[in-house]
Design a protein that fits this description.
Layout lengths: L14 E2 L3 E9 L4 E7 L5 E8 L9 H15 L8 E6 L3 E7 L4 E2 H8 L4 H20 L2 E2 L8 E3 L5 E3 L6 E2 L28 H4 L1 H4 L4 H18 L9 H10 L10 H10 L10 H6 L1 H4 L4 H7 L21 H7 L6 H4 L6 E6 L3 H14 L3 E5 L5 E5 L6 E8 L5 E8 L4 H13 L3 E2 L4 H18 L1
Antiparallel strand pairs: 1-2, 2-3, 3-4, 4-6, 5-6, 7-9, 8-11, 9-10, 12-16, 12-17, 13-14, 14-15, 15-16
Helix pairs in contact: 3-6, 6-8, 12-16, 14-15
The protein binds adenine (ADE).
Length: 456
């Protein structure tokens, strides 16, 4: 992180939302600052990324766009080599991302200290990087700003990919990665020039680029830097730098082994169509040396829900101010987080949590479905079809004693009619307040005002 962000810094020792004691500044970027903090309940360290001015509409400020991208991306990702998002908090003037703390700092500093890294260490870190990038791609997330400054290390020296503020997300209902306009190719020029793929520079002429292949190029630049200790393409003149990137001409240092040279050349192939893909990397002799295929398969598995810093799942949290902001039509951020899909729904009910979940249990069981509660207070219920062909996840957030927000996520096509005919109507129950009704908004705004003012 290099440039300056805005907003008054949280002073060290200040306790944020009664939960996190703020510490020293860890880094700063174009749109945010990152602070060390301590989760008061568990004593564990976290990183808190502070974005100023969440009220500015997306696109009007670097922060406006990047915190939404980062939250959207990290909410989809749970991987040992990707910084975990524990929680999102918000006040009237700031959004706070509570992130897993990478205690070892930036990988870049490690390379600078040591000049360059030994080949076996390059292989270990590169494998971790490729596992994180391949997993992200499989979840429809394209990082677009991979560089050593965004690669952190934990206390064991293992890699953590961070900073998804430039990420593009493929909508869950299509195969396109549309950070911008919904077709198969990306159009926004992102990233740091020295790490950017040639087709990203020329996208205007070629009509877009493939986010996965562009990330692979950046992985190639990173692998080169780890091994060499310097950049493959470098020039103080931006135009000359672009020309070098476009030609893909690079020279490995003399200590680079022939197999590593070959892999770097396949990654730094200026033609994205012939550039090596993740599948190709897995078969590459340098990468595949002593490769543990089972470990790789385990790394690619989708994982469970977000947890707080002490590892407790977040199923039963109260709505926080951020949720209230995003539920408010005056500043509805939710469409920006995920594409609207028919298998997600959110509505409010003028009923307490328990009676809603009780009703779901009764109706579900009457239909022969397995219904189980999750979370200490049973604020989440999961309904499963008998053959595992239908999964409904219902999260209920108590807004007030009598007002509850219900968030539904369905998967498995088999449940469509079951949902439409039985579970949906039963769940909506006697009184369904659409989120747009003035009474709900007034209530939400009242709470937001009350919480917002005490959270600054
Ligand atoms: N700098 C930026 N993000 C960080 C994190 N999650 N942990 C440690 N330092 C960071």
């Amino acid at each position: 992180m290099t440039e300056t962000g805005g907003g008054a810094p949280p002073s060290p020792g200040k306790v944020l939302f009664g939960k996190y004691e703020m510490g020293r500044l860890l880094g700063r970027g174009a749109s945010a600052k990152v602070y060390h903090a301590r989760h008061c309940a568990s004593g564990l360290g976290v990183a808190v990324k502070v974005f100023p001015n969440p009220r500015r509409p997306a696109g009007c400020s670097a922060a406006g766009d990047s915190f939404i991208r980062e939250i959207s991306a990290l909410r989809r990702l749970r991987h040992p080599h990707i910084v975990r998002l524990h929680e999102v908090l918000a006040s009237r003037s700031k959004v706070y991302l509570v992130l897993e703390l990478a205690k070892g700092g930036e990988l870049f500093s490690r390379v600078e200290e040591r000049g360059h890294l030994p080949e076996d260490l390059c292989r270990r870190l590169f494998r971790q990087l490729v596992s994180a990038v391949a997993y992200s791609h499989s979840r429809g997330v394209f990082h677009r700003d991979l560089k050593p400054e965004n690669l952190l290390l934990d206390e064991a020296g293992d890699l953590k990919v961070s900073d998804f503020g430039f990420a593009a997300l493929r909508s869950s209902s299509s195969s396109s990665a549309d950070g911008d306009d919904g077709d198969l190719l990306l159009h926004t020029q992102c990233g740091t020039p020295a790490y950017v793929a040639p087709e990203v520079l020329t996208k205007k002429m070629t009509g877009g680029y493939d986010g996965a292949k562009a990330d692979m190029w950046s992985c190639g630049v990173i692998l080169f830097v780890l091994n060499a200790g310097y950049l493959p393409f470098n020039d103080p003149n931006l135009m000359s730098l672009y020309r070098k990137i476009y030609r893909g001409y690079h020279r490995c240092p003399r200590w680079t082994s022939p197999n590593l040279r070959r892999l770097i050349a396949r990654l730094l192939d200026p033609n994205p169509a012939t550039r090596i893909s993740v599948d190709g990397i897995l078969r590459d002799p340098w990468f595949a040396k002593d490769f543990d295929a089972d470990q790789w398969t385990a790394l690619m598995q989708p994982r469970g829900d977000a947890t707080d810093p002490s590892g407790k799942p977040h199923h039963r949290r109260e709505l926080n101010a951020f949720d209230l902001i995003s539920f408010s039509p005056g500043l509805d951020l939710s469409p920006l987080f995920e594409e609207a899909t028919s298998d997600r729904e959110r509505f409010a009910l003028a009923e307490p949590v328990d009676s809603i979940v009780d009703r779901l249990e009764q109706v579900g069981r009457a239909q022969g479905l397995a219904v189980r509660r999750e979370g200490e207070n049973g604020f989440c219920a999961v309904v499963e079809g008998q053959k595992g062909d239908f999964l409904l996840r219902v999260e209920v957030y108590p807004l007030t004693a009598s007002l509850t927000v219900v968030a539904i996520e369905r998967s498995g096509g088999a449940g469509e009619s079951l949902w439409n005919e039985k579970l949906g109507p039963a769940l909506r129950g006697p009184v369904n307040l659409a989120l747009e009704t003035p009474s709900f908004i007034t209530e939400a705004e009242r709470i937001h005002d009350a919480t917002g003012s005490s959270m600054e």
